[in-house]
Amino acid sequence: MSILNQQKTRALIACDNQVHDLLLYSLETSFAFEVTVVNDINKFVQLMKTATAAADPENSPYSLLVCSFTQEANRQLLLPHLEEIFTFKQIAILLIGDGPETLLLDTIKSPTVNAKYLPMDKAILGINKYIIANFSIDKSYEGEEFSPISLPTLMRFQNIPFPVFLKLSSRYLKVLSVGDRFYTDDLNKYNNKGISRLYLKKRTSRWLLEQIDQQMVTILEDPQAELQLPDPPPEVLTENNSQEVPLSNMPLQDEATPAPAVATTPAATETDTAELAEVVDSVQQISEDIIKNSIGKPFQLDDVQLNTIKQNLSETVLTVKKNPEIFKLLKMLKINRDPDKYYVSHIGTLINISTAIASNMEWRTEKTIEKLVYASYFHDVGLSEKPELASIKTEVEAKQKNIPSADLKLFLSHPTRVAELLRGIPGFPEDVHLIVEQHHETPAGSGFPKKINATRITPMSAVFIVAHDLVDFIVENETWSITEYIYKRKEEYHGTNFRKIMQSLEKVKTANKA
């Protein structure tokens, strides 16, 4: 087999089985290929005819062809053209399929042709191994810290367990954090800005490549299914100091963007100090009241769970002292709130129910409890100016009440506004902003703010949604029972995550309601 010496290479991907973005990712992760993707067999044949007619067979316009046509009709159209393509001695050809190797290689006449067959479920890492074995690696690219990932590939993941970056001309900005989702709206926003690639740290890309390879059988069975990735090992999630910016504010030209100013904290005034002390005292009292009166009801929690909740409630006070952004949030929370009637009972019950559900689903880690405690505290902070709106559950209900347009806008936007606030706070528990953003969504897609359905709602958010709904059910029904709740909601809460939650509720032990 010839050794291919190109330092700057062009590749053509021809694919009809909805995994072309993963083949593209395999090529772009570690190598400096300029890639063209073709999904239609007729376009591919025409493109190759043009190339073979115009070029010297020794100097193909492409140095690598990755061809994956799994539909039988497309294979039959492809086979007559393979021998002509194989006359290009300096093009490496990877034929990928789910059929016998001989079916795809039986037209090869020359033993020196650079052609290899890869089964589809081994193609992702197989492509990389082939390139390493047969191409001279561009050492300058190999040393780069980041590698690209296409936007459709990001859409495949149920949630993203690693940071994602935007490439500017001289630096990278973090635009997605651990636990974020990448939605269709996000895809459209980036496309509208002319951006087709985001970037991962190189070590993250290599880890992800292995994860995709391990799940290829599942992907091939259902190319549209969401993939749930495991948590990366610590060495993959290295600390980075890139500035995080929201998509709406991100620049497209680095030179036109001044260097971000270094944020400084103004010296505390006597008023600030007094307000901080007042808020800290209030938070501490609320935490003590929740511990005393609420977290043990309506469901029984074991001592380990109760102690973990108590610890997190107590640590909230310390967090407020350390973080001025959280201080601002809790300062808003205390406006027009009667702790006995609203804050203590609502938040405490929400912590109790969400924790009990998570426990029965075998999600008992301290991190899980921490996220549910923080989400319970902050999910309605965006309604602090109008606390009466917190009792409204749906967009339809809000419109039926004929509330002023400004209040309606405030209500419908509060999940997004609070999520953005929480997302930007250093040290805040991961995933909490996502739980908050989705807590008014529904399995049927009729919720807000993004109207996503059960397939797009994260498992933790699903737990919180059901817990929040059950809190309201308890408040509205003095003689409530868990059996009645399940009966009334079982048809509404469909989808894998929600069905599991409803099943877990049947096992939850109700505490003495007296």
Description:
The chain is α/β, with parallel strands linked by helices. It is built from 21 helices and nine strands. It has helices spanning 20-30, 41-54, 72-85, 101-105, 123-134, 139-142, 151-154, 184-192, 202-214, 216-221, 270-293, 303-322, 324-333, 339-360, 366-378, 395-400, 405-423, 432-438, 459-476, 482-489, 496-505, and strands at residues 9-15, 33-38, 64-68, 92-97, 115-119, 146-150, 164-167, 172-176, 197-201. The strands form three sheets. Strands 2-1-3-4-5 form a five-stranded parallel sheet. Helix 1 (20-30) runs antiparallel to helix 9, helix 14 crosses helix 19 (459-476) and helix 18 packs across helix 19 (459-476). The longest helix has 24 residues, at 270-293.
Rg estimate, integer Å: 28 Å
Which descriptor suits the 3D outline?
elongated
Kindly report the average pLDDT value: 76
Low-confidence stretches: 1-7, 107-112, 239-269
Q: Strand tally, please? A: 9
Largest sheet: 5 strands, parallel
Give the amount of beta strand, in percent. Answer: 5-15%
In spatial order, strands of the major sheet run 2-1-3-4-5
Keywords:
514 residues; alpha/beta; five-stranded parallel beta sheet; 9 strands; elongated; disordered N terminus
Q: What's the quick description here?
A:
With 514 residues, this protein is α/β, with parallel strands linked by helices.
List the helices and strands and how they pair.
Elements: E1 9-15, H1 20-30, E2 33-38, H2 41-54, E3 64-68, H3 72-85, E4 92-97, H4 101-105, E5 115-119, H5 123-134, H6 139-142, E6 146-150, H7 151-154, E7 164-167, E8 172-176, H8 184-192, E9 197-201, H9 202-214, H10 216-221, H11 270-293, H12 303-322, H13 324-333, H14 339-360, H15 366-378, H16 395-400, H17 405-423, H18 432-438, H19 459-476, H20 482-489, H21 496-505
Helix pairs in contact: 1-5, 1-9, 2-3, 11-12, 11-14, 12-13, 12-15, 14-15, 14-19, 15-18, 17-18, 18-19, 19-21
